[in-house]
Specification:
Blueprint: E1 4-6, E2 12-17, H1 27-43, E3 48-50, H2 68-84, E4 91-99, E5 107-115, E6 118-124, E7 148-151, E8 154-160, H3 179-186, E9 190-194, H4 203-211, E10 220-227, E11 232-239, E12 243-249, E13 256-261, E14 265-268, E15 273-281, E16 290-296
Parallel strand pairs: 2-3, 3-4, 8-9
Antiparallel strand pairs: 1-2, 4-5, 5-6, 7-8, 10-15, 11-14, 11-16, 12-13, 12-15
Helix pairs in contact: 1-2
């Protein structure tokens, strides 16, 4: 279950991150995993539950996508998920394959947002990777429109995986579009992303730097402390300004990010050694005095 997100006005949006392990082609199994995630989100009082990229068919189905029955079954399960939300209080975001009605590639990599049995938004992935293990440009036509939904009074943008990562210029693989910048220009309160990407070393650090450049200009205050393996670390920050709190293990700014949030944190030390705590103003003008309490147990 995700932690609540708090904006400057004090509104809390509780998000359930349902990072289920989908299987390509296992429509019944994936539907059951979605149902379990929705039930967990409902029991936890979430306003929004977000599933991985291509939740329903699984990622990536490759040439199975060319079988008409395969895409049809994926769309039939999408209707079942929609019906599932009739009595569900939270909004549900799932990934699926859609037909492309216009020119170009035959399909789109999409996300649908359901609430109360209605589809309130649909988003098509803009940035389609075609490098390394990824070959999405073989199948999908890129989207062009944004999708902004209201969640508990907050404006939430939807993206899918690579849309966060317009960062391939060093490899000669630069995208002309930048959905994240377009969302920033629209002033959304937060963005949720459906992902099905492999692990890579130092990706958490790079993710923070690329996704949250608006924090540039807010002053950083850095603390270090020692913790033993398995110790509980409770971090409380009382401040009037909007802020981000990072906890690093290892070298500050380069080591693994254990957690990042805009409110109090409670984590466990993964190993004994030095830890770094960063209090970062979440944008220009966001700074001031604060009370900080770190408790190790």
């Amino acid at each position: 279950m995700g932690r609540p997100v708090r904006n400057i006005a004090g509104t809390r949006v509780k998000v359930c991150l349902a990072q289920i392990n989908t299987t390509p082609g296992d429509f019944e199994g994936n539907l059951q995993r979605i149902r379990t995630g929705v039930d967990a989100a409902t029991a936890g009082g979430a306003h929004l539950v977000v599933f991985p990229e291509l939740t329903i068919p699984g990622y990536l189905t490759q040439d199975l996508i060319y079988h008409p029955a395969y895409v049809a079954r994926n769309l039939a399960v999408l209707d079942e998920v929609k019906a599932m939300t009739i009595d569900t209080p939270c909004a549900v975001v799932v990934g699926f394959i859609d037909h492309n009605p216009g020119p170009g590639k035959p399909f789109r990599n999409c996300a649908a947002v359901f609430r109360g049995g209605d589809e309130v938004a649909r988003y098509s992935k803009h940035l389609l990777p075609f490098y390394d293990v990824f070959d999405e440009l073989r199948y999908f036509e890129p989207g062009t429109e944004l999708a902004v939904i209201d969640v508990a009074g907050e404006r939430v943008g939807i993206v899918i995986c690579e849309d966060l990562w317009n960062d391939k210029g060093s490899d000669g693989y630069d995208y002309a579009a930048n959905p994240m910048q377009r969302y920033r220009d629209q002033g959304v309160d937060c963005v949720v992303s459906l992902n099905s990407s492999p692990y890579s070393t130092d990706k958490p650090v790079d993710r923070i730097r690329r996704i949250a450049p608006t924090s540039v200009g807010g002053p950083d205050v850095v603390y270090s402390f020692q913790a033993a393996t398995g110790q509980s670390i409770n971090i409380e920050v009382n401040a009037e300004f909007d802020r981000l709190i990072y906890v690093f293990m290892g070298e500050c700014g380069l080591g693994a990010i254990l957690s990042c949030a805009n409110e109090d944190l409670f984590i466990q030390a993964q190993a004994g050694g030095e830890y770094w705590l960063v209090i970062d103003g979440a944008g220009p003008g966001q700074w001031g005095s604060y009370d900080l309490t770190v408790t190790l147990q």
